[in-house]
Amino acid sequence: MEKVLKAAELAPSAGDLKARKLFVIKAASKRKELSEAAFDQEFVAQAPFVIIFCADQEAVASYGDRGRDLYCVQDATIAATYSMLKASELGLGTCWVGAFDEVKVREACGLKESLRPVAMLTLGYEA
């Protein structure tokens, strides 16, 4: 997990602001909530870890609407991609989850309004 998160940290970002926040979810009860928020995609609850990639809209306030609507979203998705690549290199299985209710994910994880969940990444060993 440390290497996967380090890869996300090293991912490029707009203005090098790193306008993204990551949250690692291990608790079974939280993974179940995320599964429900992801329109009942059961594999989300079955994965040992779920990483939530959020766009940090406050971090790009100086870039105006384009920063809030685009740059931070790009930062989060690039970080997720780097994480997937590192996980694959380490022999771990991942699945990018983009179909979910943002409000329910935010509530399940206790995220503030300025953090927009844009991707979830399940992580574990392939069966």
Structural overview:
The protein is α+β, with helices and mostly antiparallel strands and 127 residues long. It has one domain: NADH Oxidase, CATH 3.40.109. It has helices at 2-10, 28-37, 42-46, 64-89, 102-109, and strands at 20-25, 49-56, 93-97, 115-124. Strands 1-2-4-3 form a four-stranded antiparallel beta sheet, with helices on both faces. It is globular and about 45 Å long.
How is the quaternary structure best described? single chain
CATH topology: NADH Oxidase
Q: Please tell me what the overall shape is.
A: globular
**Total number of helical segments?**
5
| Category by helix and strand content | alpha+beta
What distance lies between the first and last C-alpha atoms, to the nearest angstrom?
18 Å
The CATH class designation is Alpha Beta
Report strand %. Answer: 15-25%
CATH architectural category: 3-Layer(aba) Sandwich
Biggest beta-sheet profile: 4 strands, antiparallel
Q: List how many beta strands DSSP finds.
A: 4
Poorly predicted regions are none
Question: Could you tell me the mean pLDDT?
Answer: 96
Query: Helix share of residues?
Result: 40-55%
